[in-house]
Specification:
Keywords: Cytoplasm, Cytoskeleton, GTP-binding, Microtubule, Nucleotide-binding. Pfam families: Tubulin, Tubulin_C. The protein has 475 residues and is α/β, with parallel strands linked by helices. The chain has helices at residues 10-31, 39-42, 79-86, 109-133, 151-166, 188-202, 211-226, 256-269, 271-274, 283-290, 319-326, 356-366, 406-421, 426-430, 437-458, and strands at 3-9, 45-48, 66-69, 71-75, 98-100, 138-146, 171-178, 205-210, 300-304, 342-352, 371-372, 380-385, 394-402. 48% of the residues are buried.
Length: 475
């Protein structure tokens, strides 16, 4: 069994990460009722005897003593990390694996990347090496961050280059939360474009999440609940709407439910690494099968059931309906419509009591309505994990390498250019040592090249599919 390390950067990254660990613990508690430290738990947790001082307290088998998350928490403000350390999950995080500062990055990518990157590089490396030493077979780093702020975008992408240099063989999966057009950080287009260049060059896979899509999903859930269509009883421990176990404060904050959706994405993404199944999909298989070209490593994710997670009175979605939902635009975690765009490849990660025949039947049913590139008509990768999410009979995560991601990047570039043409707020960046105006021009050129690659693929949509001759076997 392989292990993975989660790196949570900035306010958004740490809040999502905390939700993720809360859900993972609930899931393993439901499955592992005897409290034995097994391979499933070891993939994301260490078992530590807290009575032993130093690093000698790790226990490789037997009863669970004290679980420590394989995580590094980084923020250049103390608020969120302190809140986590005062909450119910405080004992899950190793205090030696935290890096905080007081001043913050001031919503400035340059401060996060250039100033704090240089200042904390050795300290970050030390924490990463320590995390790697505790793993028997480290396979993947999961980085969680936002694109619009200073620490998440700047220091979060600085990390990628550090990881690439120090651990070139270990996969780098990045969950990036993109700002909406109404974002309250005026400089978020600058931060996002500068971060995009680093994602293009140093990430293996990026799962872009759009804040607006998350907000729309939660608004629809609230509307359905308040209108009485879903009944009146919201699940107290709904996987989507609750993370009461993660933070000290019990009142619901506006971003809690949105963060929980992203945490659920990570929960399902890692399920094959954590549990057995008849058709397991390793993390390296996602990259190998879904990324045909190095730059085109942005995977559009959709999650189902989604709206039904909010309420206890809703009957579970029929299995076939669940597959249909995964390809509808209402279930995408960015504002996109993959059915009307071009697929390079698609992965279906199914959990629960689902058979291989169910998978095949639904793929055959959906195929006629989906456009795949001519050279990869059978571009499906599938996995079956036998353990469903807590409280549900089955779930599905779809990951699509699809040209529908292009409008998100085009809109981001347009918002960047509106500011950049006026040179608005540019002086805040250029006064940071090591930051030059060429950083901006190179970043927007990098994004334009990526958009062009997607446009070239889109241009092949109407091309006829070649009927490749099959090998005939004489009987």
């Amino acid at each position: 069994m392989t292990q993975s390390v989660v790196i949570q950067v900035g306010q958004c990254g740490n809040q999502i990460g905390c939700c993720f660990w809360d859900l993972v613990l609930r899931e393993h508690a439901a499955v592992n009722q005897k409290g034995i430290y097994d391979e499933a738990i070891s993939s994301f947790f260490r078992n530590v005897d807290t009575r032993v001082i130093g690093d000698g307290g790790s226990i490789s088998k037997g009863k669970i003593r004290s679980l420590k998350a394989r995580a590094v928490l980084i923020d250049m403000e103390e608020g969120v990390v302190n809140e986590i350390l005062q909450g119910p999950l405080r004992d899950v995080f190793d205090s030696k694996q935290l890096i905080t500062d007081i001043s913050g990055s001031g919503n400035n990518w340059a401060v996060g990347h250039k100033v704090f990157g240089s200042l904390y590089q050795e300290k970050i490396l030390e924490k990463l090496r320590k995390s790697a030493e505790h793993c028997d077979c480290l396979q993947c780093f999961f980085i969680i961050h936002s694109m619009g702020g200073g620490t998440g975008s700047g220091l979060g992408t600085f990390l990628l280059k550090v990881l690439e240099d120090e651990f070139p063989e270990v996969y780098r999966f990045v969950t990036s939360v993109y700002p909406s057009g109404e974002d309250d950080v005026i400089t978020s287009p600058y931060n996002s474009i500068l971060a995009m260049k680093e994602l293009n060059e140093h990430a293996d896979c990026v799962l872009p999440i759009d804040n607006q899509s998350l907000f729309d999903i939660i608004s629809k859930i609230d509307l359905m609940v308040n209108s009485g269509k879903l009944g009146k009883t919201v699940k107290p421990k709904s996987l989507i709407t609750s993370n009461a176990g993660a933070f000290k404060k019990q009142q619901r904050r506006p971003f809690d439910a949105m963060n929980n959706i992203v945490a659920n994405l990570l929960l399902n993404l890692t399920s094959s690494a954590r549990f057995e199944g008849s058709l397991n999909m390793d993390i390296n298989e996602i990259s190998m099968n879904l990324v045909p070209f190095p730059q085109l490593h942005y995977l559009v994710s959709s999650l189902t059931p989604l709206y039904t997670l909010a309420d206890i009175n809703v009957p579970p979605r029929r299995l076939d309906q669940m597959f249909s939902d995964a390809f509808s635009k209402d279930h995408q975690l960015i504002q996109a419509d993959p059915k009307h765009s071009l697929y390079l490849a698609c992965a279906l990660m199914v959990r629960g009591n689902v058979q291989v025949s169910d998978l095949r039947r639904n793929i055959e049913r959906l195929k006629p309505s989906l456009q795949f590139v001519s050279w990869n008509q059978e571009g499906w990768k599938t996995s079956l994990c036998s353990v469903p999410p807590v409280g549900h009979s089955h779930s599905l995560l779809a990951l699509a390498n699809n040209t529908c991601v292009k409008p998100t990047f085009v809109e981001l570039r347009e918002r960047f250019m509106r500011l950049y043409k006026k040179k608005a707020h540019l002086h805040h960046y250029l006064q940071v040592e090591g930051m030059e105006e060429s950083c901006f021009t190179e970043a927007v050129s990098s994004l334009s090249a990526l958009i062009q690659e997607y446009s070239q693929l889109d241009a092949t949509k109407s091309m006829p599919v070649e009927d490749i001759p099959r090998l005939s076997v004489a009987v």
